[in-house]
Amino acid sequence: MRNISITLAAAVLAALLAVSGCSKPTNPSGGAAPESAKPKLAGIVFQEDQFFRLVLFGMRDAAKQAGVELLEGNAANKLEKEIQLVNTYVARKVDAIILSPLSAKGSVAALKQATDKGIKVVTYNTNAEGDLAVAAVASSEDDLGAQTGRAAKQYIEEKLGGKAKVAVFEFMSQAPEQSAARTGGFKREISTLPGVEIVADQDAWLPELGVKKVGDVLTAHPDVNVVWAANEGGTVGAVMAVKNAGKAGQVAVFGTDASEQLIGFLQADDNILQCITSQRPADLGRMAVESALKAIKGEPVEKKVSLPGVCLSRTDSAAVAAFAKQLQEWIGAGSK
C-alpha cells in the first residue's frame, strides 16, 4: 500500500507541474525543438550601402535555411549606436551577435560584456582587438587592392605607354587597417612600373566626398590620368568627378566593391570606369551566420576566414553581365 501511495503521489505531482507550466516544454510532433528553444541571432551592419544590404541578404538566407531567428540592427556609422545595439541584444539574451565592428578598440568593451554573458561573437568585414570573436570572416583586403592594381598596371602599359600620374583615394579615417591593406596591395602592383607616379593620396569614402576631393585633385593636377578608390562610395565619387570635369576618355578610374551603380558605370559608353574588384558580401553574411551556429552547437569553427575578391573589367563584358544578373537576383531575393 505504501508503494502504491508513493506512485499515486508522484503522478499527481507530475500532473500539477504540467498544469502550472513547470514541466519541460515538449514538441507535440515529437521532432524539432520548440520555437523558444531555437537559437536567436543578432546581425548588425553599420551603414545602408549595397555592400551591407547584400551582407544582410546572406545572413537572412543562412538563418532561413537553418530555421533560426535573426534580429537586425544598423549602427549608422556611430560607435555609441553600435554599443547600444550590442547592449540591447545582450539584454534580449541572444545566442550570438554578428557584426562588423566600427572600432578595433572602441567596440571591445561592449563585446566583452556579451561574451561574459556566454554570447558568441562573430565578426565580418572588420574585427576588434583581443580574442573575443569565435570567428572572423572577412575579404582579403590586400587581394582587393592587388587585383585592381594588376588591372591598372595592364591598362597603363597598353594604353599609356607605361607612364601614368595616379591619384589614390582611401578610407583611412573610417577603417584604417582595411584601407591600408587595400591601398598597399594596389600600390605594390602599380609601383613595378618605373613610369608611374602617385601625385595624390587622400581620404574620400563617400560619393559626395569623392566628387569634391577627386575634382579638386583633377584641378590641382591636370596631368592625372589614373584614379583609384578603395571602396564603393569613393569609386562612385571618382567616376562622377571625372564626368563633371569633362575628362571622360582622358582619366581612367579603377575602384573597389560592386553595386548596381558601379556595374552600370562599367557598362557605360563613357569609358571612365575600367575595373572594380568586388567583395563577396552575400558570402560574408552566410558564412558569419554558419560560423555562429556552429559555435552555439559547440562544433569546431574556423577562427579566421579570408575570401578573395572578384575582379570585373570593362574588357570582359560577359563576366560583368553575369555578375550583374547575379547581383539582381541577390537584391530581388533580399527584398522579399
Number of domains: 2
- What can be said about the biggest beta sheet? 6 strands, parallel
Beta-strand share of residues: 15-25%
Query: What class do helices, strands and sheet pairing give?
Result: alpha/beta
The name of the CATH architecture of the largest domain is 3-Layer(aba) Sandwich
Helicity range: 40-55%
Q: What's the number of helices?
A: 11
CATH structural class of the largest domain: Alpha Beta
Rg over CA atoms, rounded to whole Å, is 25 Å
Description of the structure:
This protein is of the alpha/beta class. It is 48% helix and 20% strand. The chain is elongated. Mean pLDDT is 89; it is low at 1-33.
Which helices and strands occur, and which strands form pairs?
Layout: H1 2-20, E1 40-45, H2 50-66, E2 69-74, H3 79-91, E3 96-99, H4 108-116, E4 120-124, E5 135-139, H5 141-159, E6 163-170, H6 176-190, E7 195-203, H7 207-220, E8 226-229, H8 232-244, E9 252-256, H9 260-267, E10 273-278, H10 281-297, E11 304-307, E12 310-313, H11 317-334
Helix pairs in contact: 2-10, 2-11, 3-4, 5-6, 7-8, 9-11
